Amino acid sequence: LSAVLKNILTYNKEFPFDVQPVPLRKILAPGEEEHLEFEEDDEEGGAGAGSPDSFPPRVPGTLLPRLPSEPGMTLLTINIEKIGLKDAGQCIDPYITVSVKDLNGIDLTPVQDTPVALRKEDTYVHFNVDIEIQKHIEKLTKGAAIFFEFKHYKPKKRFTSTKCFAFMEMDEIKPGAIVIELYKKPTDFKRKKLQLLTKKPLYLHLHQTLHKD
């Protein structure tokens, strides 16, 4: 036993199989990556660097089912169609985190992650995935907003980073298609200091469906 304890933290390829530590993929909480060294060049290019063999496992989705209907209450389904980005083709394992926040940035519903994007084409990353908002519209507090954070994996730093975000306010909830502007990170849940990601006409494309009994 003493021999085991002595060598337990030692990397020995022969005992009894190769147990060399494997670097873990780190997924950071919203805003956490802002405390790390910021490399603008890494955002603009080089995101696709590295061989396919070095890519970590894909991020699974955490989508939730539609809530039960209630008389006189409205449920909202948002289809995330696509997002326009000038370097769309270089984004690795992109997905979108959807949350509903009040004016103070406090969560009003569980946070959901989409599965990794279906495909990348020209200046668009395509998702075509439905998000079921986990609260009846009538029960959301005044000033609430639905946030969409576009995230992608950075192989050089081995973590998933927020690239940009968009949000939709309550007066924008209506059936049909909508396009919303993209803002620079870090995600500003309080909507106080917003900066557009680009002057180019690139947006998040959504389609809303309202369900009312």
UniProtKB/TrEMBL annotation:
Alphabetical list of Pfam families matching this protein: Aida_C2 (PF14186)
PANTHER family hit by this protein: AXIN INTERACTOR, DORSALIZATION-ASSOCIATED PROTEIN (PTHR28654)
One of the record's GO cellular component terms: membrane
Domain (C2 Aida-type): residue spans on this chain: 64-211
GO biological process: determination of ventral identity
MF (Gene Ontology): phosphatidylinositol binding
Organism of derivation: Buceros rhinoceros silvestris
Region (Disordered) residue spans: 35-61
Biased composition (Acidic residues): 35-45
Assigned keywords, A-Z: Developmental protein
Protein name: Axin interactor, dorsalization-associated protein
Upper taxonomic lineage: Eukaryota, Metazoa, Chordata, Craniata, Vertebrata
Role this protein plays: Acts as a ventralizing factor during embryogenesis. Inhibits axin-mediated JNK activation by binding axin and disrupting axin homodimerization. This in turn antagonizes a Wnt/beta-catenin-independent dorsalization pathway activated by AXIN/JNK-signaling.
Superkingdom of the organism of origin: Eukaryota
Keyword presence, Iron: no
Entry's family note: Belongs to the AIDA family.
